[in-house]
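Dear Dr. V.,

Thank you for agreeing to look over these. As mentioned in my earlier message, I'm a first-year student in the group and I'm still getting used to reading structure tokens, so any feedback on how I've presented them would be very welcome. I ran two proteins. I've put each sequence directly above its structure. The first is here:
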Amino acid sequence: MVHLKSVHINQDRIPVNEYPFNLPIIKNLGSLAFHKQVTILVGDNGTGKSTLLEAIASNSESILIGGEAFDSELSVKLRDQLKLVWRIKTRKGFFFRANDFNHFINRLKDIKAESRQAIRDIKERDSNSLEVMPYARTLSDLERLYGQGLEVRSHGESFLDLFQARLQPDGLYILDEPEAPLSPLKQLTLISMMKEMVQNNCQFIIATHSPILMAFPDAEILSIQDGMLQQATYDELEHVTLTRDFLNHPERFLRHL
């Protein structure tokens, strides 16, 4: 199911000479419709993909995995100018930026350490005190979700563990370059997870540079061309053609470097 049907921005109300509203992708946006359960945004760095995704996630009140809050002044400014149209608004899902992942792991470690220390302190005062229960429940919930901890796994494995634990039916998942910590094989694993969740009425909006993720079956691909989002086919994407040409003839590229 497509939960989020479209995003609109009132061009008459935005300060067109102010960043991020002066980004071509924002100036030319108007409206963005989502027709399929998986939408792939493709474009070079600096084109505004991440800013747009964060503003959409913030407007939709999505949970931010890895960060403390949507505190970017830029995304908040843009968020307030967006109108989201829903088929059925979902409270499930999250917004994820790959560069927040280490922060998320470290925060989980801190929560576990703080909970264990609180339990020790309480038991020293009173070994039978029920005050330990909230902290014990926190540790139990984290172990149920993440086993012994994401920090004990490789970066790619812990990343997939997080997704396995947090993906649930009927969710909206907004992902900014989720391929960053993943090997090509692990990216295929992520695609497998996504396919399963699509069958459970989930919607994904993903910005990526990965030709592997771009190949998600039946995804709608929107490519930023001349500052505008345009529908594209997989085989015509520069990321795909350049990667294919390089793999077929690497010497042609490397000899000029």
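The second protein is here, in the same arrangement:
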Amino acid sequence: MKPLVIIPARGGSKGVPRKNIKELGGKPLIYYTIEAAREVFEDKHIIVSTDDEEIKAVVEKTGLKVPFTRPAILATDEAGTHEVLMHAIKFSEENGYHPDVLILLQPTSPFRTETHIKEALALYHDGLDMVVSVKETKSNPYYVLFEEDKNGYLRKSKEGDFTRRQDVPKVWEYNGSIYIISINSLKKNPLHSFKKIRKFVMNDFSSHDIDNQIDWLSAESIIFGNVLKS
């Protein structure tokens, strides 16, 4: 396996302004992901992809070099993940390293640890498009999710004759924490087109993703309340 780890960290953030370098529990949010990645991979295989000079400076205080500044066109709200990843892969290949597996670690998942990364890696093998971290969703389409039909009436998103939540099939939700991706597959198709995907299950605490202020306050409660569970 020839890994390339990408930690995407653009400067613009609406839900929590400057969240990637905002201090959580006494250190910038992005440090949690960098520390976890360094427990598994060599620095030379880790790229923080950012458009922001302040984020770059904060990251480099850890001793991890940020090898490029992401073009502004790849730092807008409209920029896709696929383009950001391909940009980093191209940079790596142009500098003589040709990875075959990409590990995407988003800095908004501070409670994903090196153990989670190693366990997810153990599930990956040739022939897969991706191993992705998930949690069991509470918004089950057999039970609590509904869509409007052409007459404006609510119908279950997924039909099934279930009267108790305990009886519905388990449904999994991407938690945004770990993506282990075949670079060959990524060069052919974007992530949403992948077919051969295996799940890596994480619990609710470890899956916590920071997107807005409520998520941030919850993360502080987890840290300061010391209630994080493995």
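From my reading of the second output: The chain has one domain: 3-134+173-223. Strands lie at 3-8, 23-24, 27-28, 46-49, 101-105, 130-136, 146-148, 154-156, 172-182, 197-201. Does that match how you would interpret it?

Kind regards,
E.
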